[in-house]
Amino acid sequence: MSLSLPSTRDEAWRWSDLSGLEALVSQSKRDVAVDVASLWIGTGPRLLFVDGRYEAEGSRPGPVVVGAVDAASAHPLGRLAQGNGWALTLDKDAVAGAPPIEIVHVATGGANHVPASIELAEDAHASIVETYVGDGWANRLTRIALGRSARLMRAIRIVQETGFVSLRDEARLDAGASLVTTLLGGGGAGTRLDAEIRIEGPGAFAEHGGALLARGEQRHDAAVVVHHGSAEGTSRQLWRAVADDRATTSMAARVEVARDAQKTDGEQSLRGLMLKRTATVNLKPELEIFADDVKCAHGATVGELDAQALFYMTSRGITPDRARALLTQAFIADALSRIGDEAVREAFQADAEAWLEERA
């Protein structure tokens, strides 16, 4: 199958390696040992997708509707996600997500593309957790529309062992709306994580970030754009990247402030940790500001573990590998602490700790 994909000559894709996607498309399905029961965190509504197909037997969708989703996109990967998917539509003051809605995506080879739509009316609240496991190429497009004072919390963990996961979010926030998305890249698959968030109403809040962990020859690539089109909006982008061996982790975070978006408060915090000097961390914070009454800041740092802290811990009987794991865990802790639901936060932290313990 021939795919029309961006190349590294395109500035927005210069750190992405999409060269293996055509091979994944033609890959045969295989048996993948996945204990789906262990992936559910709570007792709320749940949806199971296997190779992009909804599995009714292992699901109880609650307010989520499964079927054809109109979620067209011009994004090079997002536009591939067409046809059947899932949609959550909540009326004014409705609540879904206590406990959160959970969606598990299992891939067994080849490529699968699933669109999704989330529409929350005024003062509606929802919480969604998504998990990716298996092998192959899992490609997703999620369109989000939040009405006045609506609130959506999303937590996404990518623990797929091999293959590739590409996610594209396109969100629009009305006045006073809140969107918080936290991602964990803790498997062995490569990733491309894209988001375009448009703050269209005054006083809206958007936060997008997480922790990306890479080892071997693995590559993680995140590219997020937050566009402030209205006054008094707030945005936060907090990312933590860990790269081991010859892995590469890249994060591009951009904030755009339109002329009428006065009193915008935008902040970016990008930090990378190289566990070996053969690893690579790329960070690219960007601000484009046309308003004159704003508070915007960005920070980007890349470093190694503190040698004095390592010495202190090992001098007190902690093995060097265990000491490195504990310090790395502390480095990513603030990114995962943004998850509001305690059980979900603990599950994500456990997955991150498992990744670190594999190295130890």
Summarize the structure.
The chain is mostly beta strands and 360 residues long.
Q: SSE layout and pairings?
A:
Blueprint: H1 21-25, E1 46-50, E2 53-54, E3 64-69, E4 83-90, E5 95-120, E6 125-146, E7 151-158, E8 164-173, E9 178-185, E10 190-199, E11 205-214, E12 219-228, E13 234-243, E14 248-257, E15 265-274, E16 280-289, E17 295-303, H2 307-314, H3 320-336, H4 342-359
Parallel strand pairs: 1-5, 4-5, 5-6, 6-7, 6-8, 7-9, 8-10, 9-11, 10-12, 11-13, 12-14, 13-15, 14-16, 15-17
Antiparallel strand pairs: 1-2, 3-4
Uncertain segments? none
Q: Rounded to an integer, what's the Rg over CA atoms?
A: 20 Å
Q: Which structural class best describes the helix and strand composition?
A: mainly beta
Biggest pleated-sheet summary: 17 strands, mixed
Calculate the mean pLDDT score and round it: 94
Q: What is the number of beta strands? A: 17
Q: What's the N-to-C terminus distance?
A: 41 Å
Shape: globular
Helix content: 10-25%
Strand content: over 45%
Could you state the order of secondary-structure elements as H and E?
HEEEEEEEEEEEEEEEEEHHH
Number of helices: 4
